[in-house]
């Protein structure tokens, strides 16, 4: 394989995180692995297969193209749920392949019913409720109408679940909003049941809700960021650490992003390094070039700010991050040589570069940085 950097994904770290997360749930609560955004940058195919071997058999994706990629690599015993976008043509494919999907508008419900009748196979749907986020979701009036449509065509629909999503469970600032959402959700579910609908799976919780609001777990939880070893917010992390007797972070990062030293150069004192004049050598410096740049997701905003690891030492980025190359100062690091391993994210020796520190520097959240790791960097599974 040819590549200038690669991403290692750790199987044991994932198994560890899943065990920790499942331990937060009552027995019988189902665990759905959220793998939208190319599995938060980890790679849908690689991560999906790995999670399956770790005992996960329910996956939530955003769109039909993600569901398709996942379905190609997973056995039929895995359940795939589309939480977001699916167009009318994709509905036929989803119904045919037992792919479940959210219904958040009457229009989608009608289209799904039509497709199901034509295929003579029920559409496996989750009614997604508007409870206060005001993004997508059926409001109360639509919901009553939805129940009538479903009850009129019992062969066209299988109502697998009823869902909603919280508008900010990661911060106690939103506490009243989250609690009101849960209350509205329960009222709507009761209404559906009174109308005669049977609902198997009630689900509302994302990672933050799993940790902060146990009452939201219900029949299934949809966990994204935490299975990858990241906390949804510093607040959720601190809260957990406050109630835990163990002093160490219970989550482990799966990702190590690695490259190697491509060129070494001695730069005399007083010279500028890279494009422009943003960095001037104040002494003679040894500069290593790394074949990774913003085209690979290493943000330009880390120019003169970011760090990488070489020979278990931190090496600061000097100058502007280029499209395909960045330069680091290795003056003080003994024995640096061509082809030395460079860690852009993750561990080397006792040092590590976390996405969080990376993100603080470039003022981005973990979620955003991870999902911007490009598709075409190879993902390699390690233990
Ligand atoms: C992304 C997402 C989740 C998972 O969120 P995390 O914070 O990553 O756990 C759950 N449900 C829905 C609808 C989502 O879009």
UniProtKB/TrEMBL annotation:
Query: Record's superkingdom?
Result: Bacteria
Q: In which pathway does it act?
A: Amino-acid biosynthesis; D-alanine biosynthesis; D-alanine from L-alanine: step 1/1
Q: Does the keyword Isomerase apply?
A: yes
N6-(pyridoxal phosphate)lysine modification, residue list:
36
- One GO BP annotation of this record: D-alanine biosynthetic process
List GO terms (cellular component aspect). cytosol
**One annotated GO molecular function:** alanine racemase activity
Q: What class of enzyme is it?
A: isomerase
Q: Which residues form the Alanine racemase C-terminal domain?
A: 254-382
- Report the active site residues: 36 (proton acceptor), 275 (proton acceptor)
CDD domains (UniProt xref): PLPDE_III_AR
Catalyses:
L-alanine = D-alanine
**Which InterPro entries does the protein's record reference?**
Ala_racemase, Ala_racemase/Decarboxylase_C, Ala_racemase_C, Ala_racemase_N, Ala_racemase_pyridoxalP-BS, PLP-binding_barrel
Enzyme Commission designation: 5.1.1.1
- Would you identify the family this protein belongs to, as annotated? Belongs to the alanine racemase family.
Name it.
Answer: Alanine racemase
The organism named in the record is Pontibacter lucknowensis
């Amino acid at each position: 394989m040819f590549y200038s950097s690669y991403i290692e994904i750790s199987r044991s770290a994932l198994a560890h995180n899943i065990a920790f997360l499942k331990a937060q749930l009552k027995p019988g609560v189902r665990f759905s692995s959220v793998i939208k955004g190319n599995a938060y940058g980890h790679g849908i195919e690689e991560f999906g297969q790995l999670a399956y071997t770790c005992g996960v058999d329910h996956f939530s994706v955003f769109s039909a193209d993600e569901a398709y990629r996942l379905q190609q690599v997973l056995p039929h015993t895995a359940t795939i749920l589309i939480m977001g976008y699916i167009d009318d043509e994709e509905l036929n494919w989803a119904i045919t392949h037992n792919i479940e999907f959210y219904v958040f508008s009457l229009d989608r419900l009608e289209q799904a019913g039509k497709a199901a009748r034509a295929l003579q196979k029920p559409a496996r749907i989750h009614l997604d409720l508007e409870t206060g986020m005001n993004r997508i979701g059926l409001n109360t009036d639509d919901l009553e109408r939805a129940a009538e449509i479903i009850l009129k065509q019992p062969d066209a629909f299988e109502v697998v679940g009823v869902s909603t999503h919280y508008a900010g469970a990661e911060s106690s600032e939103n506490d009243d909003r989250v609690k009101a959402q849960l209350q509205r959700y329960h009222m709507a579910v009761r209404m559906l049941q009174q109308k005669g609908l049977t609902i198997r799976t009630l689900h509302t919780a994302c990672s933050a809700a799993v940790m902060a609001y146990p009452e939201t777990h219900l029949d299934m939880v949809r966990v994204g960021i935490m299975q990858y070893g990241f906390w949804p917010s510093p607040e959720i992390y601190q809260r957990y650490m406050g109630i835990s007797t163990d002093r160490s972070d219970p989550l482990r990062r799966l990702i190590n992003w690695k490259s190697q030293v491509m060129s070494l150069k001695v730069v005399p004192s007083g010279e500028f390094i890279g494009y422009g004049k943003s960095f001037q050598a104040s002494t003679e410096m040894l500069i290593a070039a790394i074949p990774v740049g913003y085209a690979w997701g290493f943000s330009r905003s880390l120019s003169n700010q970011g760090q990488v690891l070489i020979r278990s030492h931190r090496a600061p980025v000097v100058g502007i991050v280029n499209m395909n190359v960045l330069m680091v100062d290795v003056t003080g690091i003994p024995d640096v040589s061509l082809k030395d391993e460079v860690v852009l994210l993750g561990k080397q020796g006792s040092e590590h570069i976390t996405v969080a520190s990376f993100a603080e520097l470039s003022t981005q959240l973990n979620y955003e940085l991870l999902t911007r790791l490009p598709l075409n960097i190879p993902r390699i599974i390690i233990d």
